[in-house]
Structure prediction request, 88 residues.
Amino acid sequence: MYMNEYQKWLDSNSLSEAERAELEAIRGDEKEIESRFFAPLEFGTAGLRGIFGPGVNPMNTHFVPWTPQALAPPGPFPVGDAAGRLPG
Prediction:
């Protein structure tokens, strides 16, 4: 599952050159790929904490837009598909 997510990010046009290079540098390192793509970063008692870098588990510019959606109470307006805002 996480390998599919890793490939989805590699195939994305949303990545910066630096992010793409960082992900290319870990190609073949299954343990590092798993650590970045096994599950989305989660809110904890101290809020969001994580290393900064590309992937669904680290904090990054692709993840930050989810934060207001996770904190906002449900309302009459659709929030949208947060997963659709990730690279892919």
The chain has four helices and no strands.
